[in-house]
Amino acid sequence: MTEEKTHHPEPSYLVDTGKYKGLMAWLTSTDHKRIGLMYMYAMMVFFAVGVILGMIMRIELFYPGQQVYGPQAYNGIFTIHGIIMIFTVVIPGLAAVFGNFSMPIMIGAKDVAFPRLNLFSFYLYILGAAIALASQFMGNGPPDTGWTFYAPYSIQTHTNVVAAVFGAFVLGFSSILTGLNFIVTMHRLRAPGMTFFKMPLFPWSLYATAWIQVLATPIVGITLLMIIAERWLRIGFFDPSLGGDPVLYQHLFWIYSHPAVYIMILPAMGVITEIIPTFAQKKIFGYKAIAISSLAIALVGYFVWAHHMYTSGMSTTARWVFSLLTFLVAVPSAIKVFNWVTTMYKGSISVKPPFLFAIGFIFLFMIGGMTGLSLGALATNIHVHDTAYVVAHFHYIVFGGVGFAFFAAIYYWYPKMYGRMYSFKMANWSFVFLFTGFNLLYFPQFIIGIMGMPRRYFDYLPQFTFGHQLSFFGGLLLVIGFIIMLITLFSKKGAKAPDNPWGGRTFEWTIPSPPPLENFDVMPEMGVNEQPYDYK
Amino acid sequence: MHTESVHITPYRTHAWVLITLLAFTFITITVTWIDLSALTVLIALLIASVKAYIVLTYFMHLKFESSLFRVFVFMVLFIYVLVILFTLSDYLFR
Amino acid sequence: MEHRDDIGAKLGMWVFIFTEILLFGGLFLVYAIMRSSYSTEFHQAAHHLNAFIGTINTVVLLISSATVAMSITAVQKGNNKLAVILLVITLLCAAAFMINKYFEWGHKIHIGLYPGSDLMLTLSHGQVMFFSLYYFMTGLHMFHLVVGGIILTIVLIKVQNGTINEGRYVLLENGGLYWHLVDLIWIFLFPLLYLIT
Fold first, then answer.
1. DSSP string, A170-214
2. Are A176 and C23 in contact (CB under 8 A)?
3. Which residue of A130, A147, A246, C142 has the fewest CB atoms within a 10 Å radius of its CB?
4. Sorting pLDDT into bands at 50, 70 and 90, what band is B5?
């Protein structure tokens, strides 16, 4: 990988060179870097909405009994909180933002394979999110089914389920097209000499993710269409009074929605795999094991869906089969964790903000993963099914895991995105608040969950009060952490960033910060003896 | 990027493929007249799979594409069959 | 310099076809489950379908698939005129399929056999499931047929004006792939819906 070219005549991608200026130049841009940033801005807005909704729930739960609003409003709020956070934040999440921004550069390409399709996915994303949000204000009030839209309630309730479901359908379509784009990009546009097993590991994780997006999302697409058809035409697939089967809905829904968890977490793992060798200045340990474990997670993760349904009345055979598979999928995940830890061993570690968040990720992901195993075991699952324990578990994965990896990724690639540095001190403070707040918010939920606090309940018994109040204060710390983070990143212009502030070895660190429109002045190549992560 | 040799399927091949497919359609209809009870579905699916294989191989040109495409198709169908089997692990053992 | 990657474009189309296969896959899964629960009722209900119309539509679709495949050969040989004729035949076949379906559905709706109708509510559970699946599956298939028809019409225009030619015809190939997908799905729908009497 060449190290020259600090002086560059090409203008950066942030400068408008096309026919439009300003906002229009962004909205019509097919440049993968701009699209990545647009996803990021949109996601920040949706994330803020989701966080506010979450805090509104915590306020209501501060004391037992009705405080501020009633049960129907509570049902609506946790539903839209779930829809926004799952479908518009964590599922597109890292893949849409950093997959778009970094992946093409990391594999040495000028752009993705289908740049216009990429922009189209972005607009589908916005459209889907808008429809989902509009469900709050149209028809007979906000949907109250939970983000899972379980039948038969979702076909009976009078609230505006159709709009929310249709929004999720459109968002799914956007996700499929992004996945398609990435698969073709990684197959066709890798730099000369970069074989699949020389590709950096973040693209590897995106490759596995893209296949899940392409192969799992259509199933939920058709399922959501069935829900709409149930409501409008009474086709009755999930309606027992017509001969249908509600459990079938759960199967179809989770055939997508469990792999969706891997759509979220795989790119997160990929980001961590980039950050750790960079800040340990050491070659990644077990490159092939990590690459293949991404594919293994994608494949096995496709067949564990029914562990969400142990109490649904499924056959005993299916229960043990899916429990076994659930335990199997823990193996490749653990392989990754061991590889990260081993990479750090004897490395020259510099604890900068991205690294701090990566460590935070490993810690939280471990807790999330381990509690996931206790949920995957049939006997314990029966006791904690649909309790706050489950809520804590999946927040440790999708927020402690994906969220922290997202923050790590922002701190890691921010200098490349904007060509500016940020204050490390402030960034470290944001970590302190986010990490403490996160644990204070969700850890008590494990405990009250085991004590018997059901999820999605608007009211509770007095013995859970203390736990809920701790969670509330944890939530406040988290919000402060976000605000510190936003101030760190966006309040004022930092010092100019060098091309390679962290000493990284992947292609994006060989080009100027911010990159020129077509990324590379000279198209990069990889020699026969070159390997990714070639630190001494 | 059009360096690889282009394979042109002759009209005659397409015609033969069409005739084969029509023949299989005829067979699958005739078979339903014979009562094979439980086997009927299996045979119908088997014939449909053969037809699908022919369409994929010739009409959709898989025979002449790089093996990557065939691997993908196989993988997708494999995953889909597994999904059906795992779902049936619930329904057949209730 | 213009970047062009025909294999990449085709790969993209194939990946899209995979998503379509799994989209229908969800429905075939529902079919498999319902069929295993209500096999005798599915047999009875299938008697109401007209296997003759189904057969005609199968033949029509197979022919249309062959003509699309042949049109690629024609373009590769530089014979755009023949390609246009073959694509027109394909579109005519599509139209014939739609007309057939119109009469088939029209008849059923006329006698009151459609999801949510009063007649449906008097039928047994298995039969309701069969007809719901019949409408949903053939309906979604028809939607794809219409989309495929639109794609092929665009392709037809481009073959006509020479944008698609001997040296560059990946759009035609991709349009063809989509059309074959429509055929592929029908190959499974036909026996599963019409031939289980």
1. HHHHHHHHHHHHHHHHHHH-PPTT--GGGS-HHHHHHHHHHHHHH
2. no
3. A130
4. low
What total number of domains does chain B contain?
A: 2
DSSP structural state of residue A507: G
Task: Determine which of C16, C30, C40, C127 to mutate to test the interface with A (most A C-beta atoms within 10 Å).
Answer: C30
**In angstroms, rounded to a whole number, what is the distance separating the alpha carbons of residues A181 and A96?**
11
Residue A505 in any domain: the answer is: yes
**H-state helical runs in A345-464:** 353-376, 378-384, 388-395, 404-418, 424-451
Chain A residues close to B94, C-beta within 8 Å: 314-315
Angle, helix C170-194 to helix C51-76, in steps of 10 degrees = 160
Domain boundaries, chain C: 14-194
* Mean of pLDDT values over B17-44: 86
Q: The domain containing residue B72 runs over which residues?
A: 66-94
- The reported pLDDT for the residue numbered A393 is 97
Q: What is the CA radius of gyration of chain A?
A: 23
pLDDT at res. A527: 86
Structure confidence at residue A197 (pLDDT): 94
pLDDT of residue C142: 96
Element (H, E) at A523: none
Q: Is residue A5 part of a domain?
A: no
Residue A380 in any domain: the answer is yes
Q: What is the pLDDT of residue A531?
A: 85
What pLDDT score was predicted for residue B1?
Answer: 40
User: What average pLDDT does range C106-112 have in this prediction?
Assistant: 92
CA atoms within 13 A on the CB side of A445: 29
CB contact under 8 A, A318 and B93: yes
Q: Please report the ipTM that was assigned to this predicted complex.
A: 0.94
Q: Which residues contact C24 (CB under 8 A, 6 or more apart)?
A: A222, C137, C140, C141, C185
Q: Is C166 on the interface with B (CB under 8 A)?
A: no
Apex CA A521: angle with CA A517 and CA A522, to 5°? 140
Q: Does C11 touch chain A (CB under 8 A)?
A: yes
Q: What is the pLDDT of residue C2?
A: 59
Instruction: Profile chain A (536 residues) by mean pLDDT over runs of 10 residues.
Output: 52 87 91 96 97 96 93 95 96 95 96 96 97 90 93 91 95 97 96 94 97 96 95 92 93 95 96 96 94 95 94 93 94 95 94 96 96 94 95 96 96 96 96 97 97 94 96 97 96 90 94 93 88 83
Inter-chain touch C26–A252, beta carbons under 8 Å? yes
Q: Does C152 touch chain A (CB under 8 A)?
A: no
Q: Do C196 and B44 touch (CB under 8 A)?
A: yes
Residue C24's Cβ-count burial label (10 Å; 0-12, 13-18, 19+) is buried
- More confident call, A61 vs B40: A61
Query: For the domain bounded by C14-194, which CATH number is listed?
Result: 1.20.120.80
Residues 20-49 (B) with a CB less than 8 A from some CB of C: 21-22, 25, 28-29, 32, 40-41, 44-45, 47-48
Q: What distances in angstroms separate CA C127 from CA A227, A235, C37, one per listed residue?
A: 20, 11, 11
In a domain, A49, yes or no: yes
